[in-house]
Known about the structure:
By secondary structure, the protein is mostly helical. It has 2 domains: 1-99, HD-domain/PDEase-like (Cyclin A, domain 1, Orthogonal Bundle); 119-186, no CATH class. It has 9 helices and no strands. It is globular. The model has no long low-confidence stretch (mean pLDDT 92). One fe (ii) ion (FE2) binds next to loops.
Amino acid sequence: xxxxxxxxxxxxxxxxxxxxxxxxxxxxxxxxxxxxxxxxxxxxxxxxxxxxxxxxxxxxxxxxxxxxxxxxxxxxxxxxxxxxxxxxxxxxxxxxxxxxxxxxxxxxxxxxxxxxxxxxxxxxxxxxxxxxxxxxxxxxxxxxxxxxxxxxxxxxxxxxxxxxxxxxxxxxxxxxxxxxxxxxxx
Length: 186
Ligand SMILES: [Fe+2]
Ligand SMILES: [Fe+2]
């Protein structure tokens, strides 16, 4: 089995206790694959990074660092080339918003973009409502969420991600505009 196939099975098994986490990783994997093909980047490297970027969630916080450690052990055990391991470790360590400027290659930027895209659009709206359920936020408190999403959108690196992000942000803006209008009616 290819390294991607092996990792996919392993990460799914490790993360499936929290189906939400695995579903997110799977979406980031698919988006990374699509963006990598479109940008002419190393598809396999992006897939490996996408699968491992949140592996630290099952270990503990800060999950970018715990995940980096786990990824290193896993990839060395699979005899993955060391230059590629270094790149994957940067993807894992710097996948947060503040890590953006520490990324080096196009592949590292692609995985970062795919992770951010997963909080924009219909999925972003679903996540906002999930958060609302957990925190008891009022509808009109979504302003901070819209601002946070806009920051993610503005920091996207690749042209492909920017194109996808633009469509998603427009959809979100329309949704929140309708929400505001409906609230104003009652
Ligand atoms: Fe994360
Ligand atoms: Fe993530």
